[in-house]
């Protein structure tokens, strides 16, 4: 049973990582970052192409690290917020019960 839960948790993390990655790449496309790299590649010659390749590699590594970090953190944050909501609802119900018992 534990194995199934851990697999589901890793699938959930993979899902959120893919969601975050698609949003980041869509934003990069909408803001023109992808077009900027393609136009700089068209006009680059020799060492300029090497510079473009190195900058793309470095940028993609940094973006992948952030995508992975956000993809790993997002499910945990969502779980924490749902646990907080549940605890608040339980506390609210408990306080309402205490209030009703005092009024009677």
TrEMBL record:
Transmembrane spans: 14-38, 50-72
Domain of life: Bacteria
Keywords, alphabetical: Membrane, Transmembrane, Transmembrane helix
Name recorded for this polypeptide: Lipopolysaccharide assembly protein A domain-containing protein
Naturally occurring in which organism (per UniProt): Mariniblastus fucicola
Lineage, highest ranks first: Bacteria, Pseudomonadati, Planctomycetota, Planctomycetia, Pirellulales
């Amino acid at each position: 049973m534990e194995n199934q839960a851990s697999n589901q948790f890793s699938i959930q993390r993979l899902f959120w990582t893919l969601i975050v990655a698609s949003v980041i790449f869509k934003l990069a496309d909408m803001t023109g970052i992808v077009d900027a790299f393609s136009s700089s590649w068209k006009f680059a010659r020799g060492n300029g192409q090497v510079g473009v390749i190195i900058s793309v590699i470095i940028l993609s590594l940094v973006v992948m690290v952030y995508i992975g970090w956000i993809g790993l953190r997002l499910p945990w944050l969502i779980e924490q917020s749902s646990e907080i909501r549940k605890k608040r609802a339980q506390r609210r119900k408990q306080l309402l019960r205490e209030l009703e018992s005092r009024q009677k």
